[in-house]
Amino acid sequence: MQEADSEARLIRTVDDVRRLLESPPFMFFELLDCVEVCRIENNVELRHHCAELALGQTLEAHNVRIPRVEIAAEEIIHAFLARPRRLWS
Length: 89
Description:
Blueprint: H1 14-21, H2 28-40, H3 44-60, H4 66-82
Helix pairs in contact: 1-2, 2-3, 3-4
């Protein structure tokens, strides 16, 4: 997981989320901020994508604390369940 000494970028809007996704690497907490912004703005697809990236980072890390994995996994589940049923098939 990329947890560098640098400060996390500020994520307040969906445009901020898109800008962040265009400029990796991402910090885990930046991705969680992205998930929250997308939840507030009801952008399910982008929220799901950010949650997947966060989960991927936690699974790649060797020092993962279980609550972090659970947070990312819960966001993926919530984003999936928020999709219209016609997208499930």
